[in-house]
Design brief:
Layout: H1 3-16, H2 19-26, H3 30-44, E1 49-51, E2 56-58, H4 60-88, E3 92-98, H5 100-117, E4 121-127, E5 141-145, E6 153-161, E7 163-167, H6 169-175, E8 189-192, E9 199-203, E10 208-212, E11 218-219, H7 222-230, E12 235-239, H8 244-248, E13 253-255, E14 264-271, H9 278-303
Parallel strand pairs: 3-4, 3-5, 8-11, 8-12
Antiparallel strand pairs: 1-2, 5-14, 6-14, 7-12, 7-13, 9-10
Helix pairs in contact: 1-2, 1-3, 1-4, 2-3, 5-9
Length: about 300
């Protein structure tokens, strides 16, 4: 016997005043209602209703059970309503994980306006250069570059991440400017341990190829590598958006523009669950619009 279903049936019988009326409300025959009430009484070891052909009356145990059952059903209804509201209305705690550079460049600038627009959402923003398990870490959205092999997640593209190779004028004057990607083998290259292997990929008009590089410094922080490049310590490979101001000021110079890597995708990864909370969908939609808007603004500025 389903105890919760039986409780609901009992309350319905009392409120409607008869077995047949309760049956009509629930799509059950009077005989079925009677059997289930009998089974409930047997399981409790107490008679809940005095039944005659004309009316129903509550026994003393029945009055106690009705009072407690109504409280329980009310609490269950409140719980169901609260959960449904969480899915319909964006509120609660949203846990977002992002790679450090992507988070700094894309997520953090969008956060003040998101929090203003959704005052009932509290955001836990986690930045690291480690792969994480969204379920294990209780994370709602993971922002990262590149493809994630997990069929249980949805990938929403937020932006393109074009990688470029650059160095400071001081380094190039001292060590010489590489004329082609293969010349990087003879240079001090600064490697990103978090996302860039020591085989740097390139793509020309006719082929794709890898160049094995080496250098005196590797780091999991793109900021560290950019700072080292600015100080003339070597050549770095980073997303173009990470060094946009340095390229504009010519404190870093890009190389091999005719042999660059195809842009990688910056994606938001989140669960494929059927009933996602509104906070998750609204955040991903907002972030996608914010990044797209910044990209258009940047393009207009560059063209002006």
């Amino acid at each position: 016997m389903d105890a919760f279903r039986a409780m609901q049936l009992f309350v319905s019988v009392v409120h409607s005043g008869s077995l047949s009326a309760a049956g009509r409300q629930l799509g059950l025959s009077p005989a079925s209602v009677s059997r289930q009430i009998n089974a409930l009484e047997d399981s409790l070891g107490a008679r809940l209703l005095n039944r005659t052909s004309r009316k129903l009356t509550l026994t003393e145990p029945g009055e106690v059970y009705l009072n407690r059952a109504e409280q329980i059903l009310h609490q269950v209804n409140e719980a169901n309503t609260s959960v449904s509201e969480l899915h319909r209305v964006p509120r609660g705690t949203l846990r977002v994980h992002s790679r450090i550079l992507v988070g700094t460049m894309h997520v953090v600038p969008a956060m003040p306006e998101f929090l203003r627009r959704y005052p009932e959402i509290k955001v836990d923003l986690l930045l690291s250069n480690h792969d994480i398990d969204l379920v294990e870490r209780n994370v709602d959205v993971d922002i990262r570059i590149g493809k994630l092999e997990d069929s249980s997640l949805i990938a929403r593209k937020l932006a393109s991440s074009e990688r470029i190779v650059c160095a400071s004028p001081d380094y190039l004057a001292r060590a010489g400017r590489p004329k082609k990607p293969e010349d990087l083998r003879e240079h001090n290259c600064l490697v990103n341990l978090a996302s860039t292997p020591k085989d740097w990929p390139f793509q020309s008009a006719s082929k794709s190829f890898l160049v094995q590089v080496k250098g005196t410094l590797s780091s999991n922080s793109a900021d560290v590598l950019v700072q080292m490049a600015l100080q003339g310590h070597g050549i770095v490979r980073v997303p173009r958006y990470a060094v946009r101001s340095e390229l504009a000021s010519k404190s870093l110079e890009a190389m091999f523009e005719a042999a660059t890597l195809s842009p990688e995708r910056v994606c938001a990864y989140y669960s494929k669950a059927k009933h996602l909370p509104a906070k998750t969908i609204d955040f991903v939609n907002f972030l996608q619009a914010a990044i797209t808007g910044r990209g258009k603004t940047s393009s207009r500025r560059q063209g002006s």
